[in-house]
User: Which sequence fits this backbone?
């Protein structure tokens, strides 16, 4: 019988931390769109080297650009290919607005306007298109943004699975406001604004392929108002991210790697609806990796954690906010889950794509 020394454990963790996803595929797979390891490998190997610049190299879901006037704008773009187009709690139209608005909000920007581009498959029903457009209009009004410009293309029957939507957005970043992984410090508190995994589970069940029934609705919602409430109560907030593709587990890994610190999550504190937990258990999926479309993860200073939680819970989209973890110094660059049984395990980035086309 052999035993493992503390030094050997540390060396294994260090080797794990240094691993970077590498692109080994010769063709694109669905996993490359899941927001996990395969996505990171594709970005690192193809897109980041080709387009490298100061704004892009921050590797965020949106970018901050300083204007000649000294003002700062945030810019983001996203495509939506969800299947089915409608699901409990929302539709592709809601996602197209909320997804881009929320990416801007995670940089502290106040969204101003969106563009919208539609790729339509020949034969797509006009009535269905009207419904999607009406959903987008309602979502934009609710988020306080205008859809200011756009484009429409039509492709051959069978080439687009009905409808794809791409949106881009701009917002203004108030003077003095900065959110960045480099601001995160040991001892900071990790907050989540509500239950996780709702959106991905709702879309999965709506497909009807699994013969499962559960009362789960997507959480799709705009988060800019929630962010403003949070930052007013906790102005020293360090970092924000909406855990969409890849879920909370993946965005926490991105934070750990960018900050070179450890994110320690508390399994008992993770807010998961019983129906979501049951569906994930049946499918062998960890709710930490299931997508959300109306939640945020925040890192705040311990001095402001109480005020931050109070502000989040006072807002309609943050009523279920809770503290889910903390920031530690060692071992740097990884995510650790403190389990209900008193042990710990490493939470890696998402591998593969258990739920393709959920946004």
Assistant:
């Amino acid at each position: 019988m052999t035993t493992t020394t503390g030094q050997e454990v540390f060396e294994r963790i260090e080797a794990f931390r240094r691993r970077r996803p590498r692109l080994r595929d010769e063709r694109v797979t669905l996993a490359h769109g899941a927001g996990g390891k395969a996505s990171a490998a594709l970005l690192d190997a193809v897109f980041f080297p080709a387009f490298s610049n100061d704004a892009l190299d921050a590797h965020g879901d949106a970018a901050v650009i300083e204007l000649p006037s000294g003002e700062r704008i945030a810019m983001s773009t996203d495509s939506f290919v969800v299947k089915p187009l409608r699901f409990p709690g929302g539709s592709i139209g809601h996602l197209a607005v909320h997804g881009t608005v929320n990416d801007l909000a995670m940089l502290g920007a106040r969204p101003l306007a969106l563009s919208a581009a539609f790729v339509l498959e020949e034969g797509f029903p006009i009535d269905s298109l009207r419904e999607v457009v009406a959903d987008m209009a309602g979502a934009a009004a609710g988020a306080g943004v205008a859809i200011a410009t756009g484009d429409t293309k039509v492709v051959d029957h069978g080439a687009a699975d009905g409808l794809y939507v791409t949106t881009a957005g701009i917002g203004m970043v108030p003077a003095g406001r900065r959110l960045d992984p480099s601001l995160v410090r040991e001892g900071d508190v990790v907050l989540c604004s509500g239950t996780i995994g709702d959106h991905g589970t709702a879309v999965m069940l709506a497909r009807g392929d699994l013969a499962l029934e559960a009362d789960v609705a997507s959480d799709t919602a705009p988060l800019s108002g929630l962010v403003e409430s949070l930052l007013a109560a906790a102005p020293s907030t360090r970092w924000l991210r909406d855990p969409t593709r890849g879920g909370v587990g993946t965005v926490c890994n991105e934070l750990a790697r960018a900050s070179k610190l450890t994110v320690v999550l508390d399994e008992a504190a993770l807010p998961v609806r019983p129906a979501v937990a049951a569906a994930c258990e049946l499918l062998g999926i960890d709710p930490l990796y299931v997508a959300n479309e109306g939640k945020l993860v925040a890192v705040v200073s311990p001095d402001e954690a109480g005020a931050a939680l109070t502000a989040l819970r006072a807002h309609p989209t943050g009523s279920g906010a809770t503290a889910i973890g903390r920031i530690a110094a060692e071992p740097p660059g990884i995510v650790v889950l403190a389990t209900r049984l008193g042990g710990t395990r490493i939470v890696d980035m998402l591998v593969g794509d258990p739920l393709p086309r959920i946004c």
